[in-house]
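Quick one:
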Amino acid sequence: MLLTTDKGLCGPLNANLFKLVVEVKTPAKFYAVGRKGSQFLARTKRDLIADFTVSDRLAFSEVKPVVELMVKAYLDGEIDTIEVIYPRFKNTLVQEPQVRPVLPLASLASFLAAAQTEAGSAPDTSDDRDMLFEPSANEVLEALIPFYVNRHIYQLVLSARASEHSARMVAMKTAKDNATKLLGELTLEYNKARQAAITAEILEIAAAQFATG
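Output:
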């Protein structure tokens, strides 16, 4: 799954994600969320299965269809892994392009490590009490996995959207600062040229007066 923006003017955010796509050398099927991603996949003739767009409100119901489509392909054996390429929101100035594995789950330790990275804090694993699951641990796990996949990918989409807004804000501020600097330089050049013209006119008037005097 490739998570990009629908529009540009967000700095190198999408370009950094496309670099990760290019690094995928094994055969892969792509599901795109965002027009920029679907355009890039189509332009580079990669195997684009489906593309989706989401609104600014970003409700869970908008993300659920693409997740269910990918999970169905995974369960049917059409794909053997589900990975998400997205810009992880670290802070306002830093958005890290990452490839996040979702399925299959390698181990609980790797899942907790990924959750820690995303949340920025370590989860509490100090509780070592024995747990009793009803009807059984396997049945509970089978019921929880769809919730995990849906919510985990939804969280990644939210992170990508936060990265988009931050990147666009920084890009617009940089553009404004550059335009202000350019305007100042052009104003200075204009004033210099205007002053030179006025000085030349005064010298011409003075020379004419001197010649007639």
